[in-house]
Amino acid sequence: MLYAALAAVGLAAAVAVPVAVHRAGSEGVPLWTAVASPGPLSAAHAYLGAQCESCHVPTRGVEAAPCLTCHVTAAADLVTKPSTAFHTTISECGGCHVEHLGRGRPPVNMDHAALVSAGHAGAAQAGGEGLTHSVARLRALLGGSGTDLIGSTLAPRPLPTGEANRLDCAGCHANRDPHRTLFGRDCQSCHGTTAWTVGGFRHPSPRSQECAQCHQAPPSHYMMHFEMMDRAITGQGQARVEQCFLCHQTDAWNNIRGVGWYKHH
């Protein structure tokens, strides 16, 4: 009888608490939010306090519409930038923007798997649609939320073999190719989606004379500054711009051969 009574009380509470919260808001049941909260909000969202309904939709969780209620201006800016235009077809903010992890800045965990699941070949695809169409897609995403304008993981999910080939990395990561078109657009042949650094990369030997294959000299080297200042400082009066190895060392551009660390700007 005791167990039956406890089960009945538990069942009644399981029904009554959601109904009361749904009708009166998060503060309708005292101390309920303190029990249900998975952790403190970030400093940017701390003003929301215990008003869970500001972000969470009953029975559905966090959706894009409540987020855009506050972030509508930022969302409109996103669709105008090639590097962030992919937001037009991402329907869940929580896939990358994670909360309840503390009082610091809201963490952003870029989830490339979310881009693949959304059907992206890269930001260039979304960016090529034009601002008008992108805003229209955001309006469609919001549906009947009344807003005027336009997956959840704590760490990026590793992409299955071959999935990275569906992403146009250069569509988001570069307006100018840092490799000067030498390596094409096949970024995933060297770079991964969890870190941009190349694992196991070793710079060519300090004795290499092919620096200009990968490195481009600054604009000043193609002006009188190179002849009047740079060559004089290094003592290489006959050096050509593409002969980087005569003046520079491989640990840092400012480590001048025979001079040491030198930075005059």
Automatic annotation (TrEMBL):
Q: Which Pfam families match?
A: Cytochrom_CIII
Question: Which keywords are on file for this protein?
Answer: Electron transport, Heme, Iron, Metal-binding, Transport
- InterPro entries reported for this sequence: Cyt_c_III_dom, Multihaem_cyt_sf
Q: Does the keyword Metal-binding apply?
A: yes
Q: Name one GO molecular function term.
A: electron transfer activity
Q: Which residues form the Class III cytochrome C domain?
A: 44-100
Transport listed as a keyword = yes
Q: Write the protein's name.
A: Class III cytochrome C domain-containing protein
Species annotation: Belnapia rosea
Q: From which lineage does this chain's organism come?
A: Bacteria, Pseudomonadati, Pseudomonadota, Alphaproteobacteria, Acetobacterales
